[in-house]
Every structure is written in C-alpha cells, then in structure tokens.
C-alpha cells in the first residue's frame, strides 16, 4: 500500500507500549500488505512461505507461516535506522548511537517509568520490557574485563516472550 505521507514511528512510545503503528504480532502478511505501507524490500511472491523478512530501512518484519512474529533492528550502527519513504522515525535514544550503553539505556528506561526484567549471561545482557520489547546488549569489541554497564545495545525486537529464556 502506497501512502501520501509516511507513518510516524515513535521509539519512546514503541518501547513503552510495543505499539508500532497498527502492527501486532500474529498478523498475516496479507493483512499487513493491505493495511501498512509497502516495504522497501520484499519479493513479489509475498504470500508464499519463501519470503520471511521485509525491510523498512533498518527495521525488519519477520514472518513465520505467513504471520508476523518479530519486529527487529540491529542496523543503527550502519546508519540505516533512518526515515524511509514510508516511515518517519522519532528516534528518542537512537539520536546519538554512541550513548547506547547499558547504563545509559537503563537510566532512560527508568526516567520514563518503563518496567523491565534483566538477565545477564555469558553472551551479554537481555532486557525484557513490559511492552514486549527485548533489548540485547553485548561486548561488541570483545574488550577484556569490560563492565556490563558498558555493554552496547546490539539489537531490539518486539517478540513473544520465550519462558525458557528466563529460567535459572
């Protein structure tokens, strides 16, 4: 679907509520193609099982069995988290990507009363926001002895919770 004006995506609102315009996990490709702007990249056979990821700049929609199961991004370090013809981004914490370290992001979440749970393991730090957004922080440069508060945000996603991920 082509729009005359882009849809605005406010990342603060997205992190607070999980709201990404009218998209919801579980919606079908067919519903999305009829009710949301066309992606920048997808195959014309969009209703087949073969196409699993649509992109809007640095944001990806992931499908399984023709249903949306993930809204994902890890592209801001490549400069791809920008406005597109179809999406206008209100970037919030992504305005300055050099600040996206765990302590900074935790501070911003707390400033906006965004509840989360935190898990640290040998791969990094995972935050699960009440909204369903998951934030992954990693030691991207493999710096020896780096404090986890200095880990960088590596990705964010809206995804159904995996209960096994939170077991001790």
Keywords for this structure?
single chain; 168 residues; seven-stranded antiparallel sheet
Can you put this structure into words, describing what you see?
The protein has 168 residues and is α+β, with helices and mostly antiparallel strands. The chain contains three helices and nine strands. Strands 2-3-4-9-8-7-6 form a seven-stranded antiparallel beta sheet, covered by helices on one side. A hairpin with a 2-residue loop joins strand 6 and strand 7 (124-129). The radius of gyration is 16 Å and the shape is globular. It starts with 6 loop residues before the first strand and ends in a 9-residue tail after the last strand.
Summarize the structure.
This protein has 3 helices and 9 strands. It is α+β, with helices and mostly antiparallel strands and 168 residues long.
């Amino acid at each position: 679907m082509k729009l005359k004006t882009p849809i605005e995506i406010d990342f603060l609102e997205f992190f607070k509520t999980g709201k990404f315009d009218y998209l919801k996990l579980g919606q079908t490709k067919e519903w999305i193609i009829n009710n949301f702007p066309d992606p920048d990249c997808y195959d014309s056979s969009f209703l087949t099982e073969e196409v699993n990821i649509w992109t809007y700049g640095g944001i990806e929609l992931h499908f399984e069995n023709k249903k949306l199961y993930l809204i994902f991004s890890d592209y801001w370090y490549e400069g791809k988290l920008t406005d597109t013809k179809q999406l206008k981004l209100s970037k919030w914490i992504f305005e300055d990507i050099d600040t996206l370290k765990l302590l900074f992001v935790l501070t911003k979440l707390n400033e906006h009363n965004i509840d989360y749970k935190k898990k640290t393991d040998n791969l990094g730090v995972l935050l699960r926001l009440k909204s369903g957004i998951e934030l992954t922080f990693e030691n991207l440069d493999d710096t020896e002895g780096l404090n986890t508060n200095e880990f960088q945000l590596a990705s964010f996603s809206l995804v159904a919770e995996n209960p096994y991920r939170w077991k001790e």
